[in-house]
């Protein structure tokens, strides 16, 4: 799976323009987080990376693509803290993290690193 990290103008409709382009390409957005402040950014996971690239290129989007890794953790207090501390202690810089699903006693996470 690929993560698309967008940098956008912090203006009304900027995120909509990107989502509309992805939708027009027939691509489903599986997960998204968007943050606006002095600048605006979003991280998006889709069901079709190649068509997402074509859609974003067609609107001149400013983006990067990263490989999304995954891990299964126990669904209990401290599991995520332990996972992220382990990465940090190994010198791995975490760029993004998603809780993809929770089923019973297990949580599946997706994450990107430098």
Average pLDDT score: 96
SS-derived structural category: alpha+beta
Superfamily (CATH H level) name of the largest domain? VC0802-like
Report the helical percentage.
25-40%
Question: What's the number of structural domains?
Answer: 2
How is the largest sheet built, in terms of strand order? 2-3-1-4
N→C terminal distance:
16 Å
Query: At the third CATH level, what is the topology name of the largest domain?
Result: VC0802-like
Strand content: over 45%
Radius of gyration: 16 Å
The number of helices is: 3
Q: What is the 3D form?
A: globular
Largest sheet: 4 strands, antiparallel
Give the strand tally. 7
The CATH class label of the largest domain is: Alpha Beta
Topology as a string of helices (H) and strands (E): EHEEHEEHEE
**Uncertain stretches:** none
Describe the structure in your own words:
- This protein is α+β, with helices and mostly antiparallel strands.
- It has two domains: 66 residues, 2-Layer Sandwich (VC0802-like), CATH 3.30.2130.10; 45 residues.
- The strands form two sheets. It has a four-stranded antiparallel sheet with strand order 2-3-1-4, with helices on one face. A three-stranded antiparallel sheet has the order 5-7-6, with helices on one face.
- β2 and β3 form a beta hairpin.
- It is globular, with a radius of gyration of 16 Å.
- The mean pLDDT is 96.
